[in-house]
Fold each of these.
Amino acid sequence: METMMTMNRNAMSMPGMGMPAMSGSTNAMPAMNMMMVPSCTITMQNIDGGMKMMCECEDKMAAAALQSLCKMLAGSMCSCAMMMNGMMVNCCNLTMGMCKCEMTDMGCTISCISGDANCCKMIQACCDCMMQMMAAGCSCCVMMNNMPICCGTI
């Protein structure tokens, strides 16, 4: 992803509930919480029963970070946010199937499969939509339990 989204938790206080003044300087910057997300090449395909996403990193450090995030969040809800110019265009929550993460040499493969025919159609429709959006220039941010694990393009 070309841009990094940051959230300043101190700026999200309720109106009238300001932060206490800090001694010394009144212009002190509050701490910012940031997370670096591994960049990778993402390919998707329809398979029997659902879809498969392959996330492939260029270097071992990014691959190790991606694999660590996958192991930490295994079994969580998987979703994909399609981004264009830093704005979310579409989000597919793959709640209609069971998602499984398998490690590869330089990343991971995420399979989302359902035994229900209608749920399978929904998963494959999401896959088709995301592939078209990536082909048109969107980047994809793959998340598990709403935590970004990787971002990339085709």
Amino acid sequence: MTCRQWTPGLIGAAVLMLITSLPQILLCYERGRQWNGAYACLDRDEFAYSAYVNALINQRPRLNDPYTGEDGGAFETLFSIQSLPAYAIAMPARLFGISASTAFIILLPTITIASSLLLFLLFFELTQNEIFSAIGAFCVLCFGWVAASLPWVFFSPHVAFPFLKRYVPAFPFPFFLAMTLFTWWALVRKSVFWSFLSGLCFVVLIYSYFFLWTAAPRGLRC
């Protein structure tokens, strides 16, 4: 792809990043000096996820319960099994000395840009039209939730960008898109390299979010 062909995809990603960052911008504006580094919550599950990431940043064991605060549980939990995204966020946060809240703030635009560009690439591979690809990526990420919702949900409060719920499915979502793109390249280019990368993305999904890794093979079969 040329620089000119990349331009619509980059513009679409930038616009989408601005849209998804509006809740955080509004929070910082309204709170002013009392902002205190808080992140704009998109889903109530994010409180438990950020607590688990914060525990890993503080070097507590993987088997900790964010609801009870206890360490070393006897059984695996959804947090401990799907721990790859949590460690992927906690380790850089610990390295750079930032909090779980700050990491969640950084994660949102990062995932938005990565998801938008991967979808843009996938559509471009299928259509060879950069304008259509940019519009398609934007529409899928903005309105994809419509396909999974009941009609009366449209007129009630809901999460407009469910793929951005941190840290799952936000963190593994680009890997889901990348696996689809790599699989396509592996088929059309008959390349072992892209097959390997596709399989690697699938492994990441297995230890990240069960809804995505179970949907991945079913989607590819279709």
